[in-house]
Design brief:
The complex is a heterodimer of chains A (227) and B (509).
Chain A: H1 2-20, H2 25-39, H3 45-49, H4 53-66, H5 84-90, H6 97-105, H7 121-133, H8 140-162, H9 197-200, H10 209-223
Helix pairs in contact in A: 1-2, 4-5, 4-8, 5-8, 6-8
Chain B: E1 5-6, E2 9-12, H1 16-28, E3 40-43, H2 63-69, H3 74-77, H4 108-118, H5 128-138, E4 140-142, H6 150-161, E5 167-168, E6 170-172, H7 197-205, E7 209-211, E8 214-224, E9 227-237, E10 240-245, E11 248-251, H8 254-264, E12 267-268, H9 270-273, E13 279-280, E14 289-300, E15 314-317, E16 330-333, H10 335-338, H11 345-350, H12 358-371, E17 372-380, E18 388-389, E19 395-396, H13 402-420, E20 426-429, E21 439-443, E22 466-467, E23 469-471, H14 486-504
Parallel strand pairs in B: 1-10, 2-3, 2-11, 3-7, 9-22, 11-23, 12-13
Antiparallel strand pairs in B: 4-6, 5-15, 8-9, 9-10, 14-17, 14-20, 14-21, 15-16, 16-17, 18-19
Helix pairs in contact in B: 1-7, 1-14, 5-14
Classes of the chains: A mainly alpha (227), B alpha/beta (509).
Chain lengths: 227, 509
């Protein structure tokens, strides 16, 4: 009960943010961070080790809808082999099976009895846009639940994916200090081997040692020449 | 043997002011009677991450510091909000204030405002040496054209079209490589911003003992006749309750931490402390000041930033009819039209400018980080709009003052005009002024002033009410500076050690 309440409040806050367009970007950063933290619940062995099939399937379908894939243009589903949906679900333990099931099954009235997980890419996008727009749903209570579930999934999926899963972890020691591989403490975990969120977003992450040396030399020439 | 440690000076808080004051007192101060060097201890609630490791290397930083602040993941290195409001880098050499690269020494008007606010005797002339020290230490220099990106130039040109004269913002340059990851309250991996590295090193060279992971619970204040005297501190380290004593105690715990510690020590207003009151002063935790910022955000149809860099800035300010900066002074910065530091993909992905889902969202993501930006509208809050710091460190003030909101609306409208004059027009623009705000760059919660009726310490940072107790941090600045508050805090700290050495730690003082 407490978790649901927290999430509902957070969802309302998000809605306020988007509706009012009031917060600064820094506020937004804070809020997004807080939201992620709120959703994250310490894992329990049973629920995380074997998430229910439908939960996993719904998250997977949502991930594919939010970040689609095509040949030569990897997206969310290309990281399924690395456990991205399980990672997403770790932060959604407060989201009930009922809400996820409602999201999955409410498409049946609109798409010839097909559940969301069975829709093709265009149908799924169309379905989610119906939820966002809300016009196809007469029961406002149902619509609110669907929209809330959609927003929670969207926040969690986009956060996990664009935080560069699975290349987002730097090992740390007992004091929380990252353990790095070389003398220069270059700790960017992003690799060229896997197309991840940072790659899709063309985000370079922290500088490499070579870049650091180049930038330092450039700055010395500009500011400290003759010092 | 006493069951406490004994020093000549105890500094509580190893942030910017604490490191600087501890280092300089140890370096320049002497026992006024014996001429001996001083035994200075600096207590800090957070860890000391470079202990036992290699010495800092100028131009390179400290490798363990680099390890501690690497930016693999925003959540992983966001500063700890505990225990107070605001951002905290709770560690030896940490910094409670958000400090990107903007580095404004106090304006001439700031000294006027400070004297008017509380009667301090501070002047631009008397602060000159302190200002020079900070400029040199942090290598403060104006932004340079070579590093400007398209976003900077769009702002500059549009401002000029509207008749304003933007100037290049001074920036802290020590060790800076223009990587662009400054801001957001986190430390700089290269020890260029928000750092006390230089003073930590100086402190160690001069024998300062850093006592880390030591949460100071209270200042020991004893009554001696009609006077109160600070005699030491009680603290908790690794679960042990310990005590240290010294004839001089300096509290440098920032705008939130300073009044909290004083109140925990029984020093504050009767109304707040009740029967826990030891020494009464209504100004502890009062006069919380700062500035209000609103970012007017835009999304462009082409890149306005580079992959790296973006620490350079322009700014212009509106002055009053006398050409002066003052209350309701609006300032405008191109901060987020150049900086790449906050364009973390997961933040960009969730931004309100982002499409909902699918290929449209993915296409947006490919470039949005370099096309997304904001112009900052900054308003120093009027002096009558100050807040308070609660005994638990909460900042309490109104967030919907209609006069402030009206001024922010004016600023927003000006920025919308500014975007309209740009050679490249935004494809999306947030025209809405804020409906509430929050104060940033907090100061003045234990301000310096002429008497106990309006302040906590005098112009030389000595408590009005408690002998041997000193305070210096952003908390003592009589009202928020017209610029960002970090460098003024450094300058005040640099002035503090000068006054303390002259008054207390020189031969015959």
């Amino acid at each position: 009960m407490m978790k649901e309440k927290t999430i509902m409040n957070e969802s309302k806050n998000k809605q306020d943010t988007q509706n009012e367009n009031r917060l600064s970007r820094r506020d937004f950063v804070k809020q997004a961070s807080v939201a992620s933290a709120v959703y994250w619940v310490p894992p329990t062995v049973g629920s995380l080790a074997e998430p229910a099939i439908e939960r996993l399937a719904v998250v997977s379908a949502m991930g594919d809808a939010l970040i689609p894939s095509a040949p030569g243009d990897p997206g969310y589903k290309d990281l399924e082999a690395h456990g991205i949906s399980q990672e997403v679900l770790k932060g959604l333990q407060g989201l009930s099976d009922d809400l996820l099931a409602a999201l999955n099954q409410s498409s049946q009235d609109l798409f010839d009895g097909k559940k969301m997980v069975d829709l093709d890419e265009k149908e799924r996008e169309s379905y989610l846009k119906e939820i966002i727009g809300g016009k196809s749903f007469v029961d406002k209570g149902t619509l609110f639940k669907l929209q809330t579930t959609y927003k929670m999934l969207r926040l969690r999926i986009l956060t996990v994916y664009y935080q560069n899963f699975p290349e987002n972890v730097v090992p740390k020691d007992s004091r929380g200090v990252p353990i790095t591989k070389d003398l220069h403490q270059i700790s960017n975990p992003n690799t060229q081997e896997l197309v991840t969120g940072w790659d899709v977003a063309n985000y370079p992450g922290p500088v490499t040692w070579e870049e650091e040396e180049r930038l330092r030399a450039r700055m010395k020439n500009i500011f400290w020449e003759g010092d | 043997m006493p069951d406490y440690q004994s020093y000549d000076v105890i500094v509580v808080g190893a942030g910017t002011a604490g490191c600087m004051i501890a280092a300089r007192i140890a370096e320049r101060g002497i026992n006024p009677t014996t001429g001996d060097h001083l035994r200075v201890a600096c207590f800090e609630g957070g860890p000391y991450i470079i202990r036992g490791q290699e010495k800092p290397q100028p131009g390179y930083g400290v490798s363990s510091r680099r390890q501690a602040v690497v930016n693999a993941n925003y959540l992983g290195y966001h500063p700890t909000p505990w225990p107070f409001d605001g951002y905290q880098n709770k560690m030896v050499g940490g910094c409670g204030l958000h400090w990107g690269g903007n580095a404004y020494v106090p304006y001439s008007e700031d000294y006027d405002h400070w004297r008017e606010a509380s009667g301090v005797n501070w002047t631009e002339e008397s602060f000159r040496d302190a200002v020079d020290e900070v400029i040199e230490t942090y290598n403060i220099r104006p932004s340079v054209s070579e590093n400007m990106v398209l976003g900077n130039n769009l702002f500059r040109d549009a401002a000029q079209v509207l008749g304003y004269q933007p100037t290049k913002t001074p920036m802290a340059r020590r060790n800076c490589i223009n990587c662009g990851y400054c801001g957001s309250g986190h430390l700089c991996k290269y020890d260029s911003k928000g750092t006390s590295l230089y003073y930590m090193h100086l402190a160690e060279q001069n024998g300062v003992k850093f006592i880390s992971d030591a949460e100071v619970e209270r200042i020991i204040i004893e009554k001696q006749g009609s006077r109160a005297v600070a005699e030491g501190i009680q603290y908790v380290q690794y679960g042990q309750h310990l005590e240290a004593r010294a004839p001089k105690i300096v509290v440098t715990c920032g705008t939130a931490g300073t009044p909290v510690l004083l109140m925990k020590s029984g020093y504050g207003s009767r109304e707040v402390l009740g029967d826990k009151l030891v020494v009464e002063n209504d100004n502890v935790g009062r006069y919380l000041d700062g500035d209000v910022n609103h970012n007017v955000e835009a999304l462009f149809g082409e890149n306005i930033k580079e992959d790296r860099g973006g620490v350079e800035r322009h700014q212009f300010a509106l002055t009053n009819s006398q050409g002066k900066l003052g209350d309701h002074n609006l300032q405008f910065f191109d901060t987020n039209l150049s900086a790449v530091d906050e364009a973390y993909p997961h933040v960009v992905a969730m931004h309100r400018f982002a499409p909902d889902l699918g290929w449209e969202h993915k296409e947006y993501m490919r470039n949005a980080g370099k096309r997304f930006g904001a112009i900052a509208v900054r308003l120093r809050t009027p002096s009558w709009e100050t807040g308070v710091v609660s005994p638990t460190g909460k900042f309490q003030y109104t967030r919907r003052n209609p006069n402030i909101l009206r001024t922010l609306k004016e600023g927003t409208e000006l920025v919308v005009d500014l975007y309209g004059k740009m050679d490249i027009q935004p494809v999306k623009l947030d025209r809405n002024p804020p409906s509430r705000y929050r104060i940033a760059h907090h100061t003045s919660s234990c301000r310096a002033g002429e008497s106990a009726q309006n302040s906590v310490v005098n112009s030389d940072f000595e408590s009005h009410d408690v002998d041997n107790l000193f305070v210096s941090s952003a908390a003592v600045i009589p009202r928020a500076p017209l610029s960002h508050s970090h460098v003024p805090t450094c300058v005040v700290a640099a002035y503090t050690w000068r006054r303390m050495v002259e008054n207390h730690f020189s031969r015959g003082a």
